[in-house]
Amino acid sequence: MRRVRVRFAPSPTGPLHIGGVRTALYNFLFARKNNGDMLLRIEDTDSSRFVPGAEDYIVESLKWLGITIDEGIGAEKEGAFGPYRQSERKHIYRKYVDQLLNDGKAYIAFDSPIELESKRAEIPNFQYDAQTRLSMNNSLTLPEEEVRKRLENDEQYVVRIKIEPGEDIVVNDLIRGEVSINSSVIDDKVIFKSVDELPTYHLANVVDDYLMQITHVIRGEEWLPSSPLHVLLYRYLGWENEMPQFAHLPLLLKPDGKGKLSKRDGDRLGFPVFPLNWKDPRTGEIYNGFREAGYFPEAVVNFLALLGWNPGTDQEIFSMDELIEQFSLERVSKSGAKFDYEKAKWFNHKYLQMKPDEEVADIFQRILIEKGFIEDTDKVIKIISLIKDRADFITDLWEQSHYFFEAPEHYDAKAVQKRWKPEIPEQLEELGKMLLSLEAASADEMEKSIKEWISGKNYHLGNLMNALRLALVGELKGPSIFEIVEVLGKEEAARRIKKAIEVLSGES
RNA sequence: GGCCCAUUCGUCUAUCGGUUAGGACGCAAGAUUUUCAUUCUUGAAAGAGCAGUUCGAUUCUGCUAUGGGCUACCA
């Protein structure tokens, strides 16, 4: 058995899409599960679509998610099969192009883009193939002498694969089983272009996968239709025995409507579709990332892993190690999965709840400092323990806890109307005084004393407690009122009571 | 248009010929909570359609429909 080697091979044309992230994740899980190697290769054969910074973005995204690379770009040690950027492998491809040319498996074509365009406009369903190639400008139709002259004159050309028609090509897909397609419907794809001396994706990925000894090609379903071409390429190159196994992953679809998830959907529906924030260097356009939206990488990984794969059990929460342990391509589903943002949020909620309060407090401290609050660590931990379960994100924490740090500036109008009864100011004032005279300082003790006091006075418990909450928080929300008093301290609580009476009774 | 792939609750999915078709998200109701949330309980919610194979089909086959992908000197 050969050592398992898989690759994630994105092209640096912009930020890494979340679907690409999932492809990377499945490659990674498969490699780890089988004690194999995970390579990162950059497919930058289209020089015109290169976007600066995209490669770094890819590496940083994978790193953030805990998808570690063993070999290639972003690996600790690059590895013995480099270079891992296709643009740096120029010198390697030429040899195989010549081999195909010499073996009569490919030919040189001079048709200009304009000529091809007009051909397509002229003939419906025009395809450059066995039917049409003899009516085109190429080394099959031009005299040898003419071809040589054109090449000597540095005329632009492309190399096309010469597909033999009428043969059923079978691709054995690990997820879908046998997929068969007749070679007559495959066109003579461009495999090399003289303009930048680079191969196209089809040739480059076959050559590189072969040379890098890739055993499994795990990629998106959009490659399924061209995989027979790749099989043919392996065959024409004489590598069919070393051909990797294919696994085509179902696509990630839009949550509403139709089509595969695109970058526009994020803006349109208000959630990220990229791992990290990205600013387009040309347009200045901002794309939102999961990281900046407050997601934990573990939650994103967990969510993504289950979009298109499941182990057949009821387990929902998986650590990376558990995913590795349980992952298999056989259990990847065949149909596309709609991106469910609500579920993504739920995963993050779960992960937030699982994090120790100390750890959450540590992150929250940084937010507090940014807002200008210097707070005692134990106090912050205490607050986190009180409010954590009502937050989905670290970024929700401030919204849920601000009243611990700053007195309310205004009071929720609806709540005031409902709970600020005429008798309340007097009762609250008494309560404030009583509070200050208490020896007890813990929530439990205070609860006991205050409740006793209220029932002794025959005051309405619900009304008074809610009014107190209104005075302390400004709204009718939050954890136990006595816990709040404990954290605030009796003095601060009394101050807030006084202020609420001034503000609210002044108005009424 | 041509080719390829897919099709179970609104969504993600389980089921590898015989199940009251299970779980999760979301939704609804109830309980708990002096509030909000959490939590717990309960509920509504699915085999695209039509043939065929079979004692028996969600499961196998075919057709139709629907959805998706590909059809570039892009990946």
Task: Describe the structure in your own words.
Helices cover 44% and strands 11% of the residues. The chain has a four-stranded antiparallel beta sheet with strand order 4-5-8-9. Strands 1-2-3 form a three-stranded parallel beta sheet. It has helices at residues 18-33, 54-65, 90-102, 113-122, 144-152, 201-211, 227-237, 263-269, 297-305, 320-326, 341-354, 357-370, 377-387, 397-401, 413-419, 424-437, 443-457, 461-473, 481-488, 490-507; strands spanning 5-8, 37-40, 71-72, 106-109, 158-161, 168-173, 177-182, 190-193, 198-199, 216-220, 245-249, 252-253, 278-279, 286-287, 337-338. It is elongated. Among the domains are: 88-249, Glutamyl-tRNA Synthetase, domain 3 (Alpha-Beta Complex); 407-507, Arc Repressor Mutant, subunit A (Orthogonal Bundle). The longest helix is centred in the C-terminal third of the chain and has 18 residues, at 490-507. The model has no long low-confidence stretch (mean pLDDT 92). The protein binds one RNA strand of 75 nucleotides through strand 7, strand 8, helix 6, strand 15 and helix 11.
Which residues form runs of ≥5 with pLDDT under 50?
Answer: none
- Spatial gap, N to C terminus: 83 Å
How many β strands by DSSP?
15
Under CATH at level 1, the class of the domain at 88-249 stands as: Alpha Beta
The number of helical runs is 20
Helix content percent band: 40-55%
% residues in beta strands: 5-15%
Structural class: alpha/beta
How can the largest sheet be summarized?
A: 4 strands, antiparallel
Any idea of the CATH topology of the domain at 88-249? Glutamyl-tRNA Synthetase, domain 3
Q: Judging from the principal axes of the Cα atoms, what is the shape?
A: elongated
Strand order of the largest sheet: 4-5-8-9
CATH architecture of the domain at 88-249: Alpha-Beta Complex
Name the assembly state.
Answer: single chain
Mean pLDDT: 92
Question: What is the H level of CATH, i.e. the homologous superfamily of the domain at 88-249?
Answer: Glutamyl-tRNA Synthetase, Domain 3
Cα-atom radius of gyration: 32 Å
